[in-house]
Amino acid sequence: MVLEMKRALEDLKKGADGAYRKIYDATYEEVYCKSFLITQEEKQALSLVEDFYAGVLKEIGEALKAEDQNLWFWQQYYKKIRREYQKLLSIQHKEAPGKAQNLAQILAALPLLHRVMLVMAYEDDFSAEQISAVLGLASEKIEGELEKLEKILPTLTQGQPQENAVWLAGWKTILAGADRQILGTVAADWVDVAYEKASAAAGVKEQPKKEDNFEYFVADVDLTEEKPKKKKAEPVIEEEDDEDEEEYSDEDNEDEEYDDDDEEYDDEDDEDDEDRYDWDLEDDGRKMIIIGAVVAVILCVVIGLGAMWFMGRNKSDSATSSQTEEQQEGEDAAADLVIKGDGDTADDAEPAEETDAEETEETEEAAPEEEEAEPEEPQTVTMKVNASSLNVRSEANTTSSVVTSLANGDTVEVLGDASQEWVQIRCTSKNNEEGYVKSEYLVAAE
Predict the structure, then answer these.
(1) Where in the sequence does UniProt note compositional bias of the Acidic residues kind (predicted)?
(2) Of 147, 80, 152, 63, which is closest to residue 116 (Cα–Cα)?
């Protein structure tokens, strides 16, 4: 509402048509809801709305001079309530607490002055000093009365329907829920009528809306479809940054300062350019942050790979050095065997050669035995099918293809451990086809 009324007042300042109606459209719903909460009668609320706008539309020009236009508007409204207080008080009637059937009727159990203070404090956020300035009461008295209203709130909300329970947390939520209920039940035909009466009483004259007298018709003409013409591709001209190519030719101001490092221009006469440069600098900063993050990630990856390579190289060097030491120890041991004896004679060397020949023959004889060793076949257990029909799968799952099917009582050979959930079998009755089945469908053969 605040933004809409501000725009409407700007249109009024410019002398635009329809500005008064825009002010009315931006505020009439809240004015009606507050009037209904205070008066508790629809007719009285509508009469109060018409009288208020008849006066405020005359003085709306003063809102242009106010610092807070929204505060000025509602101060005028509550001043109207104060002027009409005795008239409104004479036609008021209170209801007993606990008989309210909706949120708006909760206020009916309160005196008129308390209703006004509640609406000012909890709907428009007026302070005790601001309420005191409008109603002419002491701020301490207003604070004390608001505290009493907080204490008696549980008593006033007794007997409310279950759907209203979410709004009963405090006076602020109760008033917000009451506004929703009021706008949902009131008829909408009074809006234009109330404005016409108020604007006529205020002497506001605005140009009426032009009626649309255009006659729509369909011409009885045979239309032939035309083939769409191919549009020539137009070259896209990329706009270069104004920051890089914009030239400053201000001959009258020779003392203009230019910073080559930051590229900041101080031009107090052109605020739009300053805003644009600020946005460009922010974009450049974001780009630099992204680029820096990417470079940091790349450096971390390179450092990690380098560390892994360096550690692997150290391991290989240590392994090579250990192998070299083992080879050196083997050579020293061989040398000890050769040198053993009184001197280097042929008789001393012959036993070593014979020993080497015997070891070579034993190694050659052992090699064929290792090559001839064949893998042992898995142990097989004969079992039979305990199901009306059993599918044999190519793999140990239910989604693989079916190799073959077995009937109840067919005998199979289980290859491997038969206690697993899925077991590999050989179908002796199906050309020894192999596959997988669940072990729960197999029983031991008698």
Answers:
(1) 236-278, 344-377
(2) 80
